[in-house]
Amino acid sequence: MNVTMEVQKSESPTTLAEPKPLSQTVRIGRSLMRSKTGMIGFAILLCVVLMAVFAPYLAPHNPSQIAASKRLIPPVWMEKGTMEHPLGTDNLGRDVLSRIIYGSQISLLVGIFAVAVAGLIGVVLGLVSGYYGGWIDKLISRVVDAFLAIPNILFILVILAVLGPGLFTLILVIGATNWVKYARILRSEVLRVKELDYVRAARSVGAKDWRIIVRHVLPNVISPFIVVSTLSVATTIILEASLSFLGMGIQSPTVTWGGMLSDGRQYLATSWWVATFPGIAITITVLGIIFLGDWLRDILDPRMKTK
After folding, report:
1. Rg (CA), the chain
2. Which pTM was predicted?
3. Domain range for residue 235?
4. What is the pLDDT of residue 16?
C-alpha cells in the first residue's frame, strides 16, 4: 500500500518552478521595444552616433575641400544636380552631405561633454546642499539665485568674448553655466531621501557622511538627474548651434551644423539647401533625444507611470 502511494506521488505532476525575475537590463530593453517614441528616439540617436563615429568612412568628400568651380550645385533631384554631391554644395563648393556628417561629431561632443561637466558640478553641489543644510545650503542657494538672475545665453556670450571661442572653451563655459538645474533637482530629492528610515539607520550606526551620501542617498536620487541630463543634451546641441550661428562658437575650418546655418543664411532665397539640410539634421537629432528622454522619464520616474 505504501509503495503504491509513493508511486502515485512520484507520478503526480510536479509543482512548476517559479520563473526567475527578469534582470533590470532585460526589463528596460522590453520596455523600450514596447515604446514607439522610445524606439524612434533610440534609432535616431544610434544613427547619429554611428554617423559621427564612422564619419571618415561615410563622407564622400573632404568637408573642408574648396572647389570654386562647383559652388552652389543644387541637390541631385533638382536641375543641374549631380550624384557626386547628393545634397548639393555650399558657396565655396564644399559638399553639404559630407559637412553634415562631420558636423555630427561636434554636436555630440559638445552636447555630451558639456552636460557631463554641468552634471558633475550640479550633482556635487546639490548633494552637499541638500544633505548638510545650514549655512552651506544658504550659500549654494544664493549662488544658484545669482545664476538664475542672469540670462544664460548672455552669460555665455560674455565669457566667450573674453576667453575666445573654441571647442574646449565652449564645453567648459556651457558646463559651468548650466549646472544650476541639476543642483536644484538633486537638492530637493536629497531633502526628501535623507529623512527616510534607512538613511537614519545608517547615520545611527555611525556611518560616515560621505559613505551615506554615496551608497544610500545618491543611488536613490539619480533617476531625475538621468532624465534631465538626457533632455539637456538636446538643448545643448541647439545652444552650440546658436553660438556657432552667431560666430561665437567653434570657428572654421572645424565643421559645425550651426556654422553651416550661418554660412547659408544669405543664400536662402537662391540656394536654400545650404542652410536647410543642416537645420533638418539639428531638428531630427534633437527630436530623437527628446523622444528617448521622454521614454526614460516614464521608466525612471514612478510618478509618470500610467499603470
Report:
1. 27
2. 0.82
3. 37-52+96-304
4. 46
